[in-house]
Model the fold of this input.
Amino acid sequence: MYKKKGFTLIELLVVIAIIALLMGILMPALQSVSKQAKGVICQSYLKQWGTIFNMYCDGNNRKMPDRSVVSGKGRWMYSLRDLYSEENDLKLCPLVKKSSTASGTDASSWWGSTVTAWEVPANDAGGGREVGTYGSYGINGYCYDTKETLMGFATVDQHWKTPDVKGAAYIPLFMDALFWTGWPRSINSPPPLPMMVGTHIPDEDGMQRYCLDRHNGQINAAFFDFTVRPVGLKELWTLNWHRGYDRAGAWTRAGGVTANDWPDWMKKFKDY
Done:
Protein backbone atom coordinates (compact mmCIF):
# COMPACT_ATOMS: atom_id res chain seq x y z
CA MET A 1 0.00 0.00 0.00
CA TYR A 2 1.20 3.56 -0.87
CA LYS A 3 2.43 5.50 2.15
CA LYS A 4 2.09 9.31 1.96
CA LYS A 5 5.42 11.01 2.33
CA GLY A 6 5.68 13.82 4.92
CA PHE A 7 7.92 16.88 4.95
CA THR A 8 11.51 16.41 5.93
CA LEU A 9 13.11 18.70 8.50
CA ILE A 10 15.11 20.43 5.77
CA GLU A 11 11.97 21.07 3.74
CA LEU A 12 10.23 22.57 6.79
CA LEU A 13 13.21 24.81 7.47
CA VAL A 14 13.16 25.99 3.85
CA VAL A 15 9.45 26.80 4.09
CA ILE A 16 10.01 28.70 7.35
CA ALA A 17 12.90 30.60 5.81
CA ILE A 18 10.76 31.58 2.81
CA ILE A 19 7.93 32.78 5.10
CA ALA A 20 10.41 34.80 7.16
CA LEU A 21 11.83 36.33 3.98
CA LEU A 22 8.37 37.27 2.73
CA MET A 23 7.49 38.79 6.09
CA GLY A 24 10.70 40.80 6.01
CA ILE A 25 9.74 42.14 2.58
CA LEU A 26 6.09 42.82 3.43
CA MET A 27 6.40 44.36 6.90
CA PRO A 28 8.02 47.66 5.80
CA ALA A 29 5.36 48.00 3.11
CA LEU A 30 2.59 47.32 5.63
CA GLN A 31 4.10 49.81 8.08
CA SER A 32 4.29 52.40 5.31
CA VAL A 33 0.64 51.84 4.39
CA SER A 34 -0.34 52.13 8.05
CA LYS A 35 1.56 55.41 8.41
CA GLN A 36 -0.05 56.80 5.26
CA ALA A 37 -3.50 55.83 6.56
CA LYS A 38 -2.81 57.66 9.83
CA GLY A 39 -1.68 60.68 7.81
CA VAL A 40 -5.07 60.71 6.07
CA ILE A 41 -6.82 60.53 9.45
CA CYS A 42 -4.67 63.44 10.63
CA GLN A 43 -5.88 65.48 7.66
CA SER A 44 -9.48 64.60 8.50
CA TYR A 45 -8.90 65.83 12.07
CA LEU A 46 -7.52 69.12 10.76
CA LYS A 47 -10.53 69.45 8.46
CA GLN A 48 -12.71 69.21 11.56
CA TRP A 49 -10.54 71.80 13.29
CA GLY A 50 -11.09 74.09 10.32
CA THR A 51 -14.83 73.69 10.83
CA ILE A 52 -14.42 74.46 14.54
CA PHE A 53 -12.48 77.66 13.79
CA ASN A 54 -15.07 78.68 11.21
CA MET A 55 -17.90 78.09 13.68
CA TYR A 56 -16.08 80.15 16.31
CA CYS A 57 -15.64 83.02 13.87
CA ASP A 58 -19.31 82.81 12.90
CA GLY A 59 -20.21 83.41 16.54
CA ASN A 60 -17.57 86.11 17.02
CA ASN A 61 -18.34 88.59 14.23
CA ARG A 62 -15.95 86.68 11.91
CA LYS A 63 -13.03 87.44 14.23
CA MET A 64 -10.35 85.10 15.57
CA PRO A 65 -9.80 84.89 19.36
CA ASP A 66 -8.45 88.04 21.02
CA ARG A 67 -5.07 86.90 22.36
CA SER A 68 -3.52 88.93 25.17
CA VAL A 69 -0.20 88.34 26.89
CA VAL A 70 -1.10 90.92 29.53
CA SER A 71 -4.28 89.12 30.63
CA GLY A 72 -3.17 85.62 29.65
CA LYS A 73 -6.45 85.11 27.79
CA GLY A 74 -7.35 84.17 24.25
CA ARG A 75 -5.35 80.98 23.62
CA TRP A 76 -7.21 78.87 21.06
CA MET A 77 -7.36 75.80 23.35
CA TYR A 78 -9.62 77.63 25.77
CA SER A 79 -11.42 80.04 23.45
CA LEU A 80 -12.65 77.16 21.26
CA ARG A 81 -13.12 74.59 24.01
CA ASP A 82 -16.92 74.54 23.94
CA LEU A 83 -16.74 73.50 20.28
CA TYR A 84 -14.37 70.54 20.67
CA SER A 85 -14.39 69.46 24.35
CA GLU A 86 -16.30 66.25 23.59
CA GLU A 87 -13.89 65.24 20.82
CA ASN A 88 -10.61 64.56 22.62
CA ASP A 89 -9.35 62.37 19.76
CA LEU A 90 -9.01 65.53 17.66
CA LYS A 91 -6.22 66.79 19.90
CA LEU A 92 -3.66 64.29 18.67
CA CYS A 93 -2.38 63.30 15.25
CA PRO A 94 -2.75 59.48 15.07
CA LEU A 95 1.06 59.24 14.84
CA VAL A 96 1.37 60.98 18.22
CA LYS A 97 0.19 58.98 21.21
CA LYS A 98 1.53 60.58 24.38
CA SER A 99 2.55 63.95 25.70
CA SER A 100 6.15 64.53 26.78
CA THR A 101 5.14 64.57 30.45
CA ALA A 102 2.93 61.48 30.21
CA SER A 103 5.58 59.50 28.37
CA GLY A 104 8.20 60.37 30.97
CA THR A 105 10.65 61.89 28.49
CA ASP A 106 10.58 65.23 30.29
CA ALA A 107 8.34 65.58 33.30
CA SER A 108 9.19 69.25 33.78
CA SER A 109 8.65 70.55 30.24
CA TRP A 110 5.58 71.22 28.15
CA TRP A 111 7.40 70.80 24.82
CA GLY A 112 6.29 68.18 22.34
CA SER A 113 8.29 66.65 19.50
CA THR A 114 7.85 64.78 16.22
CA VAL A 115 6.29 61.84 18.07
CA THR A 116 5.07 63.30 21.37
CA ALA A 117 2.47 65.95 22.19
CA TRP A 118 2.90 69.14 24.20
CA GLU A 119 1.25 69.37 27.60
CA VAL A 120 1.02 71.99 30.34
CA PRO A 121 2.78 70.45 33.38
CA ALA A 122 1.84 71.09 36.99
CA ASN A 123 5.01 73.06 37.70
CA ASP A 124 4.42 75.57 34.91
CA ALA A 125 0.77 76.52 35.13
CA GLY A 126 -0.48 80.07 35.50
CA GLY A 127 -0.82 82.98 33.11
CA GLY A 128 -4.07 81.53 31.84
CA ARG A 129 -2.56 78.08 31.22
CA GLU A 130 -4.40 75.06 32.64
CA VAL A 131 -2.55 71.98 33.90
CA GLY A 132 -3.08 68.93 31.69
CA THR A 133 -3.96 70.80 28.50
CA TYR A 134 -2.32 68.85 25.67
CA GLY A 135 -2.23 68.36 21.91
CA SER A 136 -0.04 67.75 18.88
CA TYR A 137 -1.31 70.67 16.79
CA GLY A 138 -0.58 74.37 16.97
CA ILE A 139 -2.05 77.60 15.64
CA ASN A 140 -0.28 80.22 13.54
CA GLY A 141 0.21 82.90 16.20
CA TYR A 142 -0.46 85.66 13.67
CA CYS A 143 -4.08 84.52 13.37
CA TYR A 144 -5.23 86.22 16.55
CA ASP A 145 -7.37 89.35 16.70
CA THR A 146 -4.91 90.87 19.16
CA LYS A 147 -4.77 94.45 20.41
CA GLU A 148 -1.13 94.29 21.53
CA THR A 149 2.32 93.31 20.31
CA LEU A 150 2.90 89.64 21.15
CA MET A 151 6.22 88.15 22.21
CA GLY A 152 7.90 91.51 21.73
CA PHE A 153 7.98 91.38 17.92
CA ALA A 154 4.61 90.19 16.51
CA THR A 155 2.96 93.57 16.01
CA VAL A 156 -0.77 94.24 15.83
CA ASP A 157 -0.66 95.16 12.14
CA GLN A 158 0.96 91.80 11.26
CA HIS A 159 -1.96 89.74 12.54
CA TRP A 160 -4.69 88.55 10.16
CA LYS A 161 -7.47 88.73 12.81
CA THR A 162 -10.17 87.24 10.54
CA PRO A 163 -10.28 84.36 8.04
CA ASP A 164 -12.07 86.56 5.51
CA VAL A 165 -8.94 87.87 3.80
CA LYS A 166 -7.51 87.76 0.29
CA GLY A 167 -5.20 84.82 -0.42
CA ALA A 168 -6.64 82.74 2.43
CA ALA A 169 -5.54 79.50 0.76
CA TYR A 170 -1.89 80.43 1.34
CA ILE A 171 -2.22 81.55 4.96
CA PRO A 172 -1.57 78.72 7.47
CA LEU A 173 -4.08 78.46 10.29
CA PHE A 174 -3.61 75.24 12.27
CA MET A 175 -1.14 72.37 11.81
CA ASP A 176 1.20 69.71 13.19
CA ALA A 177 3.39 71.39 15.80
CA LEU A 178 5.51 70.76 18.89
CA PHE A 179 3.84 73.65 20.74
CA TRP A 180 0.37 75.17 20.76
CA THR A 181 1.48 78.29 18.91
CA GLY A 182 4.35 80.06 17.20
CA TRP A 183 5.17 83.28 15.35
CA PRO A 184 7.32 82.26 12.35
CA ARG A 185 9.57 84.78 10.63
CA SER A 186 11.21 84.47 7.22
CA ILE A 187 14.65 84.91 8.84
CA ASN A 188 14.17 81.83 11.05
CA SER A 189 16.68 79.09 10.30
CA PRO A 190 15.64 75.41 10.17
CA PRO A 191 16.29 73.15 13.17
CA PRO A 192 19.75 71.54 12.95
CA LEU A 193 18.34 68.15 13.99
CA PRO A 194 14.90 66.52 13.61
CA MET A 195 12.62 67.18 16.58
CA MET A 196 12.44 63.65 17.96
CA VAL A 197 12.53 64.74 21.61
CA GLY A 198 10.92 67.57 23.57
CA THR A 199 12.97 70.68 22.82
CA HIS A 200 12.57 74.28 23.93
CA ILE A 201 12.25 76.50 20.87
CA PRO A 202 12.29 80.25 21.68
CA ASP A 203 9.48 82.46 20.36
CA GLU A 204 12.02 84.19 18.12
CA ASP A 205 12.59 80.90 16.23
CA GLY A 206 8.90 80.18 15.69
CA MET A 207 9.27 78.39 12.34
CA GLN A 208 11.11 75.55 14.05
CA ARG A 209 8.02 74.72 16.07
CA TYR A 210 6.36 73.44 12.89
CA CYS A 211 9.35 71.94 11.08
CA LEU A 212 8.66 68.34 12.11
CA ASP A 213 9.26 65.25 9.99
CA ARG A 214 5.96 63.75 11.08
CA HIS A 215 4.60 62.78 7.64
CA ASN A 216 7.55 61.80 5.44
CA GLY A 217 9.07 65.24 4.95
CA GLN A 218 5.75 67.02 5.43
CA ILE A 219 3.31 68.23 8.03
CA ASN A 220 -0.46 68.49 7.61
CA ALA A 221 -2.03 71.93 7.79
CA ALA A 222 -5.38 73.71 7.65
CA PHE A 223 -5.43 77.11 5.92
CA PHE A 224 -7.51 80.27 6.31
CA ASP A 225 -9.95 79.09 3.65
CA PHE A 226 -10.38 75.95 5.83
CA THR A 227 -8.88 73.63 3.23
CA VAL A 228 -6.36 71.02 4.40
CA ARG A 229 -3.28 69.69 2.64
CA PRO A 230 0.23 68.37 3.32
CA VAL A 231 2.98 71.00 3.43
CA GLY A 232 6.60 70.20 2.62
CA LEU A 233 8.99 71.16 5.40
CA LYS A 234 10.97 73.48 3.12
CA GLU A 235 7.66 74.86 1.84
CA LEU A 236 6.95 76.29 5.29
CA TRP A 237 9.18 79.28 4.50
CA THR A 238 7.09 80.15 1.42
CA LEU A 239 3.69 80.36 3.16
CA ASN A 240 2.10 83.71 3.97
CA TRP A 241 2.39 83.56 7.77
CA HIS A 242 1.60 87.21 8.50
CA ARG A 243 0.88 90.54 6.86
CA GLY A 244 4.17 91.68 5.37
CA TYR A 245 5.80 88.26 5.53
CA ASP A 246 8.61 87.82 2.96
CA ARG A 247 7.64 84.75 0.94
CA ALA A 248 10.89 84.99 -1.04
CA GLY A 249 13.15 85.09 1.99
CA ALA A 250 16.61 83.60 2.40
CA TRP A 251 15.28 80.07 2.96
CA THR A 252 13.43 79.85 -0.35
CA ARG A 253 14.68 79.13 -3.86
CA ALA A 254 13.52 82.61 -4.87
CA GLY A 255 15.71 83.97 -2.08
CA GLY A 256 18.76 82.02 -3.20
CA VAL A 257 18.86 79.05 -0.82
CA THR A 258 20.78 76.03 -2.12
CA ALA A 259 20.56 72.34 -1.24
CA ASN A 260 23.76 72.57 0.77
CA ASP A 261 22.35 75.33 2.98
CA TRP A 262 19.85 72.98 4.64
CA PRO A 263 20.71 70.73 7.61
CA ASP A 264 21.67 67.20 6.57
CA TRP A 265 18.37 65.70 7.71
CA MET A 266 16.42 68.07 5.41
CA LYS A 267 18.56 67.98 2.27
CA LYS A 268 16.60 65.07 0.75
CA PHE A 269 13.27 66.90 0.97
CA LYS A 270 11.65 68.74 -1.93
CA ASP A 271 12.81 72.32 -2.52
CA TYR A 272 10.44 75.30 -2.85
The helical segments are 9-58, 76-79, 81-84, 100-103.
